[in-house]
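Deliverable D5.2: sample structural annotation.
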Amino acid sequence: MFSNNKRIAVFIDGANLYATAKALDFDIDYKKLLSMFKSKAILVRAYYYTVLIEDQEYSPIRPLVDWLDYNGYTLITKPAKESTDSTGRRRIRNSIDVELAVDVMEIAGKVDHIVLMSGDGGYRRLIEAAQRLGTQVTVISTVSVSPPLAADEIRRQADNFVDLASLRGEISRQHSSARPAQNDDNYDDEDDYDDDYDDEYDDDEAAETA
């Protein structure tokens, strides 16, 4: 699937990858993840996309975002959109689909291989467009849980599909007594969240920062 003389670019839908790893009951070690891709091909760039709540005094995902930004990843962040529903409750929506799609199309045709770490079926046309420019596309998500988190349409469209469960031994984080940066941005694309979103973060959902 990968080759040491092929140029690849990796695109990580942060919320989607987090939800996938959580469903598989392990945490991603982003240092190991980057090393894995570098060992398999010529890594041109690794993008990580996430949405941030700007008015929070402390965002649990901020330590992860800062660590990634200084350790080989290209960070694409976007402020969450807020609204108030008819009952007066605060609602938060987010999506990084457009930003990710624009970046994929800018680099497609300039690299040999694109890796999309997301199971979102909305990316099917994006994958098709990248393939028309001569770039192979691998999707990494999972069908090892019920229901599967990888949409059938992108599995069919991709040149290759890798189940995240099969990479667990290479990229999982070893838990320790130290408290590392958290990895939960608490979002699923296009979902609404209420005012109590900040109470739902789990201390053990973290990224490797050492």
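Annotation notes: Residues 177-210 have pLDDT under 50 and may be disordered. Helices lie at 14-23, 30-40, 62-70, 97-107, 124-132, 152-157, 168-171.
The annotation will be released with the project's public dataset once the embargo ends.
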